[in-house]
Batch of 4 targets.
Target 1
Amino acid sequence: GAVVSQHPSRVICKSGTSVKIECRSLDFQATTMFWYRQFPKQSLMLMATSNEGSKATYEQGVEKDKFLINHASLTLSTLTVTSAHPEDSSFYICSARATGTEYGYTFGSGTRLTVV
Amino acid sequence: DAKTTQPPSMDCAEGRAANLPCNHSTISGNEYVYWYRQIHSQGPQYIIHGLKNNETNEMASLIITEDRKSSTLILPHATLRDTAVYYCIVELAGSYQLTFGKGTKLSVIP
C-alpha cells in the first residue's frame, strides 16, 4: 500500500528558532500533499496544500511567512516553522494521495513539536 | 462541501461488532464517504471509502443508505486495539481535500 514517511516524530526547540518537518511518499508520486495541525483534544485542521513545483495554498488564518512549505519533488514536501513560539506547539501531520481511489489518502505518523 | 455529524463517543464490548453512524445529509452525487481512525498521538489511518454501494475490506464494512444521506462503519469483531477516534469525512468534490470533524471516540471495553 501507499506509505507516507514523516520526520522527525518528535522535536523540542527553543523560542525563536526554526524547525523543518519532512514528508515523503515512499512508493508513489504525490503532486499534492497536505499539511494539518492538531491541538490537544481537537480535530485535525488543514493548514495548507502543497503543490509540486508551485506555491502552496494556505488556509485562511495560516501565516504563509511563518509556515514555509516547499514541494520540490514528487516525493518530498517540507514544512518549516519559522521563529517558533510556544503557541506553535502542536501535532503536525502530512498526507498525500496515491493515484487511483483504492488507497484514499495516506497520512504520515505526525510530528510532535514542543517550543520551549 | 457536505458536512458530517457523528456521535461524540461510543462504547463497544470486545469481540462484538462496533457500528459507528454518520450523517451526511447534504452530500452531493460525486462526493465519496471516507472513514479514517486516529489512535492517540498517531497519524490518521485509512479504513474504507465508498460512493454509493456498500463496501467491505479486511478492516471493516461500510453501509451507505440508498439516499446517501447517512452511512455506518462496521467493525465486525472489535478488539482493544480498535479504541480510537473515528472520522467520517466527505471529500470535497474536485478539491481533493479532507475536512475533519470531531469524530467519534470509540472505546472497546474488555
Target 2
Amino acid sequence: GQNIDQPTEMTATEGAIVQINCTYQTSGFNGLFWYQQHAGEAPTFLSYNVLDGLEEKGRFSSFLSRSKGYSYLLLKELQMKDSASYLCAVRDSTKAGGYNKLIFGAGTRLAVHP
Amino acid sequence: DVKVTQSSRYLVKRTGEKVFLECVQDMDHENMFWYRQDPGLGLRLIYFSYDVKMKEKGDIPEGYSVSREKKERFSLILESASTNQTSMYLCASTLSYEQYFGPGTRLTVT
C-alpha cells in the first residue's frame, strides 16, 4: 500500500529550531516534496529531494534517506509567520499519462509562539 | 510568475445540483490536477490531465468528472452534488515536477 506519515501538530518557540519528520511507504519513488500552506491559502513549494542528503535553502533545510523511507524539514530561527501546515508529498514513479503522481501526507500544523 | 486561478473562493450548493469548478493557469503547463483537501486526510487526487482532451482518474474520481478543452483551463464537474462532497477543492498545474496551486474553492453542499 501507499502511506505517508507525519505528526499532526507541533508547537515551537520563536527563534528556535523545529524538525518535522515524514516517513513514507510507496510503490514507487521519484522524489519527495515539502510544501507550506498557511490557513485558507494555497500550498506553496518549499523543497524537492530526489537524492539522499541535506538540501539547504536559507532558514529551511530538507533531508532525505531513501533506504529508510524518511525525510525531515528543518526550520531554523523560527518566526511567527512560519505558523502554517507543512505537507510532505512523494512523487510516485508509477507513470500514468507520462506523469508521476504526487501522494500527500495529511500535513503537520506548526504553531510558533512568542 | 506562475498564476493559477480558480473561479470561486466560496460556493454553497444544494444536494443534487450540478456544480462546475473552473481552473485557469497562465504558464502553458501541460499537466493540470484537481485535489480535494479534508482535515486529517491531506490532499487527495481526484483527476488529472496531461494534455488537451486527455484525462486520467486519480485516487477518488467517483462522483466527479472533468473537462479540458483548452490547455489553460481544467474544469471539475460534480454531476449531482452530495453532502459528502463538501470540501476544499484545489487545482494545480505543472510543467515538470513542482506543482503550482490555485487559492482553492471551499464548497459547501447543503
Target 3
Amino acid sequence: DTGVSQNPRHKITKRGQNVTFRCDPISEHNRLYWYRQTLGQGPEFLTYFQNEAQLEKSRLLSDRFSAERPKGSFSTLEIQRTEQGDSAMYLCAAGRDSYNEQFFGPGTRLTVL
Amino acid sequence: AQTVTQSQPEMSVQEAETVTLSCTYDTSENNYYLFWYKQPPSRQMILVIRQEAYKQQNATENRFSVNFQKAAKSFSLKISDSQLGDTAMYFCAFMRSWGSGGGADGLTFGKGTHLIIQP
C-alpha cells in the first residue's frame, strides 16, 4: 500500500459529460502529481501541486482539464466536455520534501463512450 | 526536454533466471534522478530502484541492480533469480533534480517493458 488512494476506480461516461476524479495522499505528502496513462504507453505528466499551490499546469492537455488542491490535502482532476480520446488511466502520485520518490495511487480508469 | 527510450516491448524468461531490461535517455541536464517502476497487472505502480546521477556507484536493492552509464546515458535494470511475482510492466523514468528546477516537471517515463516470468 502506497498510502495514495483514488476514487472512483472506474468511470464510464458519455461524450460531452464532465467528470471529476479524487486523489487522497497521506498527510505527510505535500507534493502531488497527476499523470495520464494510455494503453501501451508510460504515464504522461499533467500537473503538479506543492501543498495547495499549483506550480506546474502547462502540461494539462487542454483547457478542458483542470485540477485543484484546495487545502493541500486531497486533490481533484476535472475533465469538462469529455471526448473519446480522453479515455485513459488517470494516475495520482504523491511525495514529500527532500525525497525524490513518488508514491502512486491505483488510478482511475476513464471510458468515454 | 527529456526523453526516455525502452527498446524492449516484451521479454520472457524462466523462473530463477537473470534478466536485464534496457533503458536509454536523453537530457542536457547534469543533475537528475533515474528510476525503475514496476506496474503489476491491475495493481499500483511501485518503485523498484532509484539512482542519483551524481553517484557513480550503481544502486542495488536485493535482487535488483542497475548498470548506470552516465556518459552513454544508459540505465539498465538487472533482476537476478527472477520470480513469478516479478511479472509486470517495468517503466524507466527520469526526473530533473529539485535544485535544477526539476521535480515540478514530474517524471518522464519510457513506454515500458512487459516482463513475463515463466514457471
Target 4
Amino acid sequence: SQKIEQNSEALNIQEGKTATLTCNYTNYSPAYLQWYRQDPGRGPVFLLLIRENEKEKRKERLKVTFDTTLKQSLFHITASQPADSATYLCALSSGTYKYIFGTGTRLKVLA
Amino acid sequence: DARVTQTPRHKVTEMGQEVTMRCQPILGHNTVFWYRQTMMQGLELLAYFRNRAPLDDSGMPKDRFSAEMPDATLATLKIQPSEPRDSAVYFCASGLAREDGYTFGSGTRLTVV
C-alpha cells in the first residue's frame, strides 16, 4: 500500500543552523510534492511545490529537493530562527488534485 | 489576505446527534477539500470537489458522512449519527490548480461524547 513517512520524532536544532527534514514514500509515483507548515491550533500553510522533473526548488531561506530514484524529498531551512518552530508536512499527488499528507515532523529551533 | 472560513470553530456533541460543519472557500477557488486530522492518523482526505462536482469521496464513511457544495461559496460536511471515533479536527481547504498550494481554514474541532 502507499506510504508516506516523515520522522515522527521532533527535531531540535540551534538557532542559525540548517534544519533538514525528510519525506520518504513507497508504492507511489508522485507528479507533485508540496511542503506545508502547521502551527498548533491552525491549519497547514502552503510553503513550496516541486514537480517530479525538478531536482530542487528554493524560496528565500527554504530549499526543497526531490529524488524520484531514492523516493525522497528533503526540506531545508537555512539560518533557522525560533519562529521557524512548527510541524512541517509533506504532501504528494500522482497528478490529480488529490494530495496525500505525511504525518509531519515537529521542528524546534532553540535560541 | 483571502482566507477559508470554517464554522463552527469548536463543537461538542453527544453520540448519535447530527453535526454539520460549514466552509466558505476563497472566492474564485474552484477546488474544495475536506480533511480530518487526528494524532494517530494525521491528515486524511475525506472528499473533494471541483467546480462544485464531487470528484472523490472514497475517504469518507458513506453510511454516516455526507459532503455537499450547494453553491460556490459554501461547502458542508455532515455526520449523522455522530460517534466518539469521529472526534477530530476537520479542515476545509480550497485551491485553483493541482500545481498550486491549497489554502486551509482554521478547522472545526469536533468532540463527540
